[in-house]
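Handout, page 2. Input:
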Amino acid sequence: MKKRGLRSKLLSILLTGCMVVSLAACSSQSNQKNDSSKKEGTESGTNSKADKYEVTLGRMTTANPKLPDGDTYEDNAYTRWAEEVLNIDLKDAFEANGTDYDTQISLALSSGELPDMMTIRNQAVLEEMVDNDLIADLTEVWNKYASDTLKEAVDSFDGRALDRITFDGKIMMLPATDPDPGPTEAWIRSDWLQELGIKVDADHNHIITLDELKMIAKEFLEKNPGKAQNPVGMAFTPNLTGDDPSSANSINAVTSAFGAYPRTWMNDNGQVSYGSTSEPMKSALSLAADWFKEGIIDPQLGTRTWDDITSLLTNGQIGIVFGPWHMPDWLLNNVRELDKNATFEAYAIEDEKGKVNTKHINPVVGGVVVRKGFKHPEIAIQIANMFYDTMKYKPEEVAKYPEVENYINNAVDGTARPFNIEISSSTSLLDDYADIEKGVKDEIKIEDARTVESQNVIKSVKAYLADSANAATADWARYHSRMKGIGLIQSMTESNTINFITPVFPVETATMKTNMANLNKLEEETFLKIVTGATPVDSGFQDFVSQWNKQGGEQIIKEIQDQIK
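Output:
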């Protein structure tokens, strides 16, 4: 393949929107070593005790990993387990969170000092690394070392996962795979509904209309059951929409009720279109503008941050938030910590035909790459086998390492593992829920649930149901996220209520690389102006579509159509 300049390509991808850190900061975080400084391992990859092999990692972190005192990202129960089983020595070349992590990758690439293994989150970065011959071909080690469970998980996406990581017949990345998260859910304070005597969802299917959603928000706003200063009806972050169908704090639940799919490339019989420029999108924005004018949407819409909305929740100022099924595990649990009476119900928003619209996600959102020249790429596959097969499906093995069990039971963040990814089958979400539901109902023994996580969830749900008033917050969260969040997805699946569309997942085009950031900015600014009334809906949306096409959107559509042909 033709090599393309790293500075002009990779840095433009990875440093967009990031602040460049100082060279001093970079050097202080890097402990990169080359192969000549490492001890030799055996060819099998399971090294002898005399030949412990050092492996350097690019580590993606989070602000609150919930690590026990004394443990670090580099030295914790998960890393100690991997080191003992595989006889390796894991060292972090760099640790960073969010856009800072992308900055660290770009600095490593521009300097040529790559860690042995690192997680990447961007398909364009993978392609550039392949083009510049920087990463190892994993085909042989994947075929030889990957467990049947991992192979079946990747294969379950009908080729869509392997297609994203295969170049000229070579597997170039260990993929992170995710099942569809389902539609955006409206998480509503059910204790407030009961207190105010609000009746919705007459057929008890947990699917409500836009009118019902508006009514609930208005009642919460006017009657203020949280007894808070400055109550708010509904709050959203300023960018309004998200790429993920269930993006938290977005208006995607509203847009889906109109059949609008923002930030989505659509394919209608070979004709590509962009969901954010569609007429249904205009209709959704028009409704949101009406709600804002009526005071139902937060008057500080343009300035609210993610943390602000979390504060609105915990302060009792708001009783409706939007997001995925797992919101109780990392956001709504904050409410429970401060208010033991707080409970939530998950609802989906239906369209005029009674359907709940959503889209399939790209099954591969990143993965782990191995530096070309690293002598034992099979170690990456062996680590994956441990954390995405053994730890999930073989509790008898995990039980040999009590501190690993303790991490699982206490919900230590996944970033503590050597790789911050998930490898799941396309049906894993509902497969796990089926086990959990049966376990809670005593239809199966807890130990018969297929995954360690499901076994722990069953225990948590049972503990919550046994004494909901005094249950631990972690048990409360697992009950809400699984029995309500995933339970809603399961019931909609059984009733054939979900309408899935399959978007186009294009390879990044030339014009995307140069123009997409500005187009996204144009979209965010225009939508915010329309909803807040700063711009009229009709003329504002028409001007947006015109400018979007002129500023590269029309050309991008042509380039995507060339791809799908």
